[in-house]
Design brief:
It contains 13 helices and 19 strands. The strands form 5 sheets. It has a 5-stranded antiparallel sheet with strand order 2-1-5-4-3. The protein starts with 5 loop residues before the first helix and ends in a 29-residue tail after the last strand. The radius of gyration is 66 Å and the shape is elongated. Helix 8 crosses helix 10. 41% of the residues lie in helices and 24% in strands. A hairpin with a 4-residue loop joins strand 8 (214-223) and strand 9. Among the domains are: 19-129, PAS domain (Beta-Lactamase, 2-Layer Sandwich); 149-255, PAS domain (Beta-Lactamase, 2-Layer Sandwich), CATH 3.30.450.20; 379-559, Histidine kinase-like ATPase, C-terminal domain (Heat Shock Protein 90, 2-Layer Sandwich), CATH 3.30.565.
Amino acid sequence: MALTDPAITDTERLLPQLARYEALFEAVPLAVAVFDERLLLTRANARYRELTSTTGNEPVQIYDAFPNAHADLSEQIDAAIRGDKWNPIHVPFQQVGGQRVVEVGFLPIEQAMGAKGVVFIAGDVTEREQLREELARSVAQLETIFDVIPDSVRVFDAEGIITRMNSQAVLDHGVNTPASLLDLWQQDRPRSLEGMTLFMHEHPTARAIRGELVRAQTLSVRRGTDGGKQVIEVNSNPIRDERGRIRGAVTVERNVTERTRLAQELEEQVRRSAALYERVSTEAERLERMVAARTQELMELQEARSRDRRLAAVGQLAAGVMHDVNNALNPIMAAAYLLELNAEDPSAVRDYAARIAKAAETGAATAARVGRFIRQDPLKGSDEDLVNLSVVAEEVVAMTRSLWAERAQGGRIELIRDFAPGVIVSGIAGEIREALLNLIQNALDAMGGGGTLGLITRIAGNEAYVEVGDTGDGMSAEIRDRAFEPFSPRRAPGDPVWDFRRFTVSPSATAAEPRSSRKSAAGRRSGWCFHSCSRPQTCPRRSSVRVQPSACCSSRTMTTGGSSCAPCWSRMAIPSKPCPPCTKGSLD
């Protein structure tokens, strides 16, 4: 039987074991390098080669085996050679992908079978260090937020001991900072806002430690160096571990003293406002009733005054109409008397009959004018004819001459007349005759003791003029201002100053659209200037009415209907020569 060599047998037995160690050496998730007693690199795994960016096959000195380390490892190597205990450090290594943080350490190899040396072991801790730094930053931020919160924050453990509090919570009690929930309850002496004492087991923190969630519970406490009363709002939550077991509680307290005071004041203001509103509403209803009553009284008073004004207007209208009718009847009565005296004279009878017809026509014109005034009828031009002002003036003189002696009251009436030929206008003859009749009648009334009556017709450019004047008394200022009112009375009872009234609506509304001016004052001579377009077919029609000063008569001018020769009626003193033409008023 052949003998087996023991050395060969041990080698064969150790080879598989060595292979397993080699595989384990490569599979270790650490960078490992072995240096012999001469401190030369003898073995290194792939992670070492990756860490140092070397091949790991060359026998380099241990001091030169880490070319990309950003730190001097000589001190750690020397400590391992001396046999000191394991003391790992963090060293940055520069690699292709960037800088990595590695935890490195050196271990001495104990003498065994005559072998010794140093083992290098390193692990990449870059991600762990980054997480550590991020965690440190987060903790710092939370610490800062926790400390700057304006509310008081306290953390309690399961036994009610205060484990942490922010700076505001420290300031709540001055130097007597509570260390537990019991101390806090004894110093605060909490009560409800209604004044009920709160027992310790009813405290929000105690309830949170029992597992309750407490939200916005308002309490009255004693805090501060002077122990003053404060109102706080408390929120408390239990703290649980990963298994859901209660490990403590966190309590947040906010000082709402000022807010509570303002809320109470606001509530009081609302209550007072409601009471005031109710009172004001009652007063407003009373005032509304008073206003309604006063309004009713005012409406009744206005209605009464309106009735009075209507009655006064009716009376004024009646007085004016009576005056005009009287002026028309006087010539009729005088002509009838003379007709009776001269009944045997055919010529005289025809003359007086014509006078009566003319006077009756004047009366009919008055009636027609009153009807149009009452009905507010529009003016019509279908009744207009060509009228010779000189002929009409001569007719009026003839109609009234029989009244002169009676009106003069023993005095003498002297007539000055100057009638130009061809003074023709377009109009209603009866109304123009009525206007001249009124003016002459008024002139006669104004000359109670006799005087001079002037009557002139003339043409100036495109305008025809009729001027009536007398040497009697003028009108007072009050009556003169009312001279242009329709149907205004001639004079007040007992007033010796007569009103030379305008001949109302009709003459100023004819197609000739005459214009009249007047000037009169108490104690002065007075007269009228009446002029119209001498070529009515060329006068443009207008539709506005304006009262304005007259340049020739120094008095107001009324324009009606508004043509280029619009009417202007004004009383004026009779000059020694004919009245100059009135200046036309401007029209809209």
